[in-house]
Write a structure and sequence with these properties.
- The protein is an alpha/beta fold and about 475 residues long.
- It has 2 domains: about 80-115 and about 380-470, Aspartate Aminotransferase, domain 1 (Alpha-Beta Complex); about 135-370, 3-Layer(aba) Sandwich (Aspartate Aminotransferase, domain 2), CATH 3.40.640.
- Helices cover about 45% and strands about 15% of the residues.
- It has 18 helices and 15 strands.
- It has helices at about 20-30, 35-50, 85-90, 115-130, 140-150, 155-160, 170-185, 200-210, 230-235, 260-270, 290-295, 295-305, 335-350, 360-370, 370-400, 410-415, 425-435, 455-470, and strands spanning about 1-10, 60-65, 100, 165-170, 190-195, 215, 220, 225, 245, 275-280, 310-315, 325-330, 420, 440, 445.
- The strands form 5 sheets. Strands 4-12-11-10-9-5-6 form a 7-stranded mixed sheet, sandwiched between helices. A two-stranded antiparallel sheet has the order 1-2. It has a two-stranded parallel sheet with strand order 3-14.
- β7 (about 220) and β8 (about 225) form a beta hairpin.
- α17 (about 425-435) packs across α18 (about 455-470).
- The chain is globular, with a radius of gyration of 30 Å.
- Mean pLDDT is about 90; it is low at about 5-35 and about 45-55.
Length: about 475
């Protein structure tokens, strides 16, 4: 209930012609249509007492309670296509339900997992009694150092020559948003090319930053594989100097990555067209189990001397989902350019969130910067990546054994990372949820990180039914 202040001039019939009085009365009536009926009753009573037939008595001001809101024009936003899946899953009372929507790692018991090295790093922080002072705008220096080295390799010339501008960001999303603002400010009119399909939040990020984007072909539904020729053709056809958004490894949502030879050809075309490669690296070490292998695509472009943007996230590979810890890196042609680029990234961050959080940054710095913890982390990543590979194999085996139609399900084994693009359409995905209580995104993507070996046969039954019986 809002309070609205209403001021009225009450004019008597002795000082105003009757038509004006009638108009005043109409105004009084309309003013209180949404108000309290007691107020109207008060005026009616005063009129009967001859109040309006006296000389003007001045201006009356009163507060009237109304139901109107200044936010009436704000419409209901649609649910997030990914996070909304978890909300629907929580509301489901069925014991068989499966949440394969959000990309978050689960144990074989389908429980959230906190890495042992993360616990050890946090214990170190407690033992040291570290404070909670503000970080600089660019973030924790130790974090920025180890995260650039993890991405490019500690011996990379770009690092030693001071050509890498690194700022701590709010995980992958926040880092991408920083880069989008940088593009909008210093490359006005430049377009970002995004794979079709891509992670659902990419388009939101560039829309909000007012950066124009278009799509390049990536997924071939006929082969459930990479449309490499279409991808190359679209990158060639883009306006010179476009930003080409690439997934460093474990493409989300398809799980389909270019081969090393295809990466070379992609780099060739981007160089020929004077485009700027822009990598989103969310799964380094988590896809194959090897930090170096999963960063090979980025390192290829940097080794060619190209200027490259790279957004990083530690949500998946260190399980730091809620810490919102990541980084934005810009590999520049010189150290002087890197200093200036970093200054502008800090300038953009200052009014956006001012300072990044410290807890996750110190966890990463402790783990990546300590040889013992670093080796333990690599072992844990290999275990997590290995569990997903085992589940992927079991799902393929179950589908192949149960489906008597002869359909080839081998594309599941060719995909990599925590996701599998099943090829199911929206109606079939709806059937997965409505009939089988399997929650997934409507583009047919499932998160294998949320699947256990014990649930593979049930999931296979759901997929076969949805694929063959729903058009």
């Amino acid at each position: 209930m809002a309070l609205t202040t209403v001021s009225l001039n009450l004019i008597s019939s002795t000082t105003s012609p009757l038509p004006q009085e009638n108009r005043n009365r109409k105004v009084i009536s309309s003013k209180f249509k949404v108000g309290d009926s007691n107020v109207r009753h008060m005026f009616q009573k005063e009129k009967r007492n001859g109040f309006l037939n006296t000389k003007p008595c001045g201006r009356i001001t009163m507060a009237v309670a109304v139901n109107a809101s200044r936010f009436e024009g704000v419409s209901m936003a649609p649910p997030d296509p990914i996070l909304g899946v978890s909300e629907a899953f929580r509301a489901d009372k069925c014991d068989l339900k499966l949440n394969l929507g959000v990309g978050a790692y689960r144990t074989e018991e389908l429980q959230p997992y906190v890495l042992n090295v993360v616990k050890k790093a946090e214990n170190l922080m407690l033992q040291r009694g570290e404070n909670k002072e503000y970080l600089p705008i660019e973030g924790l220096a130790a974090f920025n150092k180890v995260t650039a080295e993890l991405l490019l390799g500690a011996d990379n010339p770009a690092i030693h020559e001071g050509r890498v501008a690194t700022v701590q960001g709010l995980s992958g999303t926040g880092s991408l948003r920083l880069a989008a603002a940088l593009i909008e400010r210093y490359f006005p009119g430049a377009k970002v090319l995004i794979s079709s399909p891509t992670w659902g939040n990419h388009k939101n990020i560039f829309n909000d930053a007012r950066v124009p984007w278009s799509e390049y072909r990536y997924y071939d539904p006929k082969t459930v594989g990479l449309d490499f020729d279409g991808m190359i053709s679209d990158i060639k056809g883009a306006p010179e100097g476009s930003f080409i958004l690439l997934h460093g490894c474990a493409h989300n949502p398809t799980g389909i990555d270019p081969t090393p030879g295809q990466w070379e050809k992609i780099a060739d075309v981007i160089q020929e067209k004077n485009h700027i490669p822009f990598f989103d690296v969310a799964y380094q070490g988590f896809a194959s189990g090897s930090l170096d292998e999963d960063a090979s695509s980025v390192r290829l472009f940097v080794a060619r001397g190209m200027e490259v943007l790279v957004a990083q996230s530690y949500s998946k590979n260190l399980g730091l989902y809620s810490e919102r810890i990541g980084a934005m890196n810009v590999v520049c042609s010189s150290s002087d350019v890197a200093v200036r680029v970093k200054s502008q990234l800090k300038r953009i961050a200052r009014p956006m969130y001012s300072n990044p959080p410290i807890h996750g940054a110190k966890i990463v710095a402790n783990v990546v910067g300590d040889p013992t913890l670093f080796n333990e982390w690599k072992e844990e990543m290999e275990l997590m990546a290995g569990r997903i590979k085992t589940v992927r194999q079991k799902l393929f085996d179950s589908l192949s054994a149960k489906d008597k139609s002869g359909k080839d399900w081998s594309f599941i084994l060719k995909q990599i990372g925590m996701f599998s693009f099943t090829g199911l359409n929206k109606a079939q995905s709806d059937n997965m949820t409505d009939k089988w209580h399997v929650y997934m995104t409507k583009d047919g993507r499932i998160s294998l990180a949320g699947l256990s070996l014990a649930k593979c046969e049930y999931l296979a039954d759901a997929i076969i039914d949805s694929y063959h019986n729903v058009s």
